[in-house]
Amino acid sequence: MHSSPFISDVPVAEALQAWYDACTAAGCPDRVAADLVPLEDAAGRVTAEPVWATRSSPVSDVAAMDGIAVLARETHGATPTTPLHLGPESYVVVDTGDPMPDGFDAVVMREQVHYVGDDAEIRSAVPPYQHVRSIGEDISAGELLLPEGHRLRPVDLAAAAAAGATRVLVRRRPRVAVIPTGDEIVPIGSPVRRGEILDTNSLMLVAQAREVGCEAWATEIQPDDVERLSTAVREAAGSADLVIVIAGSSAGRDDYTARIVSELGVLAVHGVAVRPGHPVVLGAVDATPVVGVPGYPVSAALTFEIFVAPLLAALEGAAASQRPEVTARLARKLPSVVGMDDWVRVRLGSVGGQVVASPLPRGAGVLTSLVRADGLLLVPAGVEGHHAGEQVSVRLLRRLPEIERTIVAIGSHDLVIDVAATMLRGADPTLTLASSNVGSLGGLVALRDGLCHLAGSHLLHPATGEYTVPYLDEMMPERDLAVIRLVHRDQGLLVPPGNPLGITGLADLGERDLSYVNRQRGAGTRMLLDQELRRLEIDPATVSGYAREEPTHLAVAAAIAAGRADCGLGILAAARAFGLDFVPVAEEPYDLVVEASSLEDPLLAPLWELLKSADFHAEIAKLGGYNTTETGKRLR
Ligand SMILES: Nc1nc2c(c(=O)[nH]1)N[C@H]1C(S)=C(S)[C@@H](COP(=O)(O)OP(=O)(O)OC[C@H]3O[C@@H](n4cnc5c(N)ncnc54)[C@H](O)[C@@H]3O)O[C@H]1N2
Ligand code: MOO
């Protein structure tokens, strides 16, 4: 089979089976070899044979408490009113773990013994074997202690040693070679020129392989050259148990992975019905499984999780580890392509006793979507997506108790929220403030639907000229809501450094042919623009770029910095972050809307404290363009 531009859509389970079958046919071993390893080096390794106990533990009957060893039948008749005296020949002082002296069968705790001269006085009769650990109580010689295919934990090592082992037969660590490819790829630490990409995938994939117990290394970066790539794959197949080739998996001019695998060995699958990860290449070369992971970082990471990790576990003879799952309520609508398994990264938080999942950006190049993710939501191929509020099952990337210590903020983006998140975490490593940016109106809708603890809003109400509060009366008149001022901030036009076009304000949009970059519908900044355009009697249809929407202030700034627009409305801090100039337009309040009961919620208490702190105000001042005189004030 030669590489073709047509990548197939094989369902995941079928693809895995086809790959395993091809590997078997190509003579790939089912398992890596086994080694006898000292117990102290065996943590995390997988047993290659059962561990049988050759010794009992304890090896004899032993005292389970500090006290005296007695013969139970000699204690008959002892009661609190009729204490019994045992002469020195009738007891032996013992400590916890001592072998039981011959002729004694029970222990009385030191606290219940009174010495009267050499006699021990006891005030209750004891049954045989009281406070005695009998031989083999923990482990009996000859019993099966651990099965084959068991990943050894610290307790397993201790038990194996107690049972007489000093070494265990375990699978050697699978060896994984990672081959980065592409003319544009440069090693980490190099200066990055236009068109070059840092080899971040090798770093990640090697670490992922080590995390699941493998020995892993990255080879040199290979150029897009069939000869050299073929040599690299052959060499790696000779020294590794599994070869990962990064990128070159799709249909571009220099995408050779599928072709090379088919020429050197067998290509089982090229293209799976999964996103990210669609153009994955699965095959075998020289009796070694080879996987071509797509170059986009999220695709590479998830391809490892979906395809590579299960095969590596199988090579060790262990079950692939499964992430725990939790049922969550979806914060917003989630469309998905039918016919493809869709792996969506989500942030999680617990609101009103319910775990809530907010989808993160979907792009396969958005690595931070995985960095910020608390879970993975798999929308199976047959499902068209989910409605907002639907119950979904999420695989956890973070532990549930951490998720329960997360304040969920949904709404407009402001850097002050990021500052608050940083300072809250600095003061309490268990506390997270997670914000997702859907615009002010989106935040209020999320609060209405019980999907967040707080909504960040700077929503101008055109009829009243007031911010945020009139919307609450319109949207949720029956709810007891509190509005807390976070800051006042300057809104203005972000323009390239030095303001080369000499832009003076929004009026210029009506008079000159400027290209604008807008915010999405429902964003407070968009409402501000619309209000100002109305006031200035400028028809939005005449503003070039009005329809171009970016989701955050920083994204607007990035578009201007990249020269894709002449100006856009945003905050000073965003201009500073990208070295842009700023033409002030208005000062507006940015507020936090919460259920009134949240003012008493212990989870949010540190936030309310922070709003009052001088350190917080000082950090905000450093950003520039903010005014904190009303920070923390309750407006409603
Ligand atoms: N015509 C089509 N184009 C694309 C398709 C398709 O089906 N038809 N699939 C898209 C999908 S989906 C993905 S995923 C990518 C896969 O791309 P490749 O595996 O061919 O990789 P490249 O095109 O070489 O690179 C993609 C992207 O990844 C970056 N990259 C590559 N290596 C590394 C590395 N070691 N560290 C970090 N980043 C890396 C590379 O620079 C590119 O930005 O193809 C789509 N196109
Ligand atoms: O595999 Mo691509 O990752 O679907 O985006």
Distinct ligand kinds? ligand LQZAQKY5, molybdate ion
Oligomer: single chain
Structural class determined from secondary elements: alpha/beta
Tally of alpha and pi helices? 17
Number of strands: 37
**Helical amount among residues, as a percent range?**
25-40%
CATH class of the largest domain: Alpha Beta
CATH architecture of the largest domain: 3-Layer(aba) Sandwich
* Rg, Å, rounded: 34 Å
Largest sheet: 7 strands, mixed
Protein name: Molybdopterin molybdenumtransferase
Cofactor: Mg(2+)
Domain MoaB/Mog: 177-314
Organism: Kribbella sancticallisti
If you had to describe this structure to a student in words, what would you say it looks like?
Pfam families: MoCF_biosynth, MoeA_C, MoeA_N, PBP_like. Its cofactor is Mg(2+). Belongs to the MoeA family. It is an enzyme of class 2 (transferase). InterPro entries: MoaB/Mog-like_dom_sf, MoaB/Mog_dom, MoeA-like, MoeA_C_domain_IV, MoeA_C_domain_IV_sf, MoeA_linker/N, MoeA_linker/N_sf, PBP_domain. The chain is an alpha/beta fold and 636 residues long. It folds into 5 domains: 165 residues, MoaB/Mog-like domain (Molybdenum Cofactor Biosythetic Enzyme, Chain A), CATH 3.40.980; 58 residues, Molybdopterin biosynthesis moea protein, domain 2 (Alpha-Beta Complex), CATH 3.90.105; 72 residues, Molybdopterin biosynthesis moeA protein, domain 3; 67 residues, Beta-clip; 183 residues, 3-Layer(aba) Sandwich (D-Maltodextrin-Binding Protein, domain 2). It contains 17 helices and 37 strands. The strands form 11 sheets. Strands 29, 30, 31, 32, 35, 36 and 37 form a 7-stranded mixed sheet that branches. Strands 16-13-17-21-20-18 form a 6-stranded mixed sheet, sandwiched between helices. Helix 13 links the parallel strand 33 and strand 34. Helix 3 packs parallel to helix 6, helix 4 crosses helix 5 and helix 9 packs antiparallel against helix 17. The N and C termini lie far apart (69 Å). The mean pLDDT is 94. Ligand LQZAQKY5 binds next to helix 3 and helix 6.
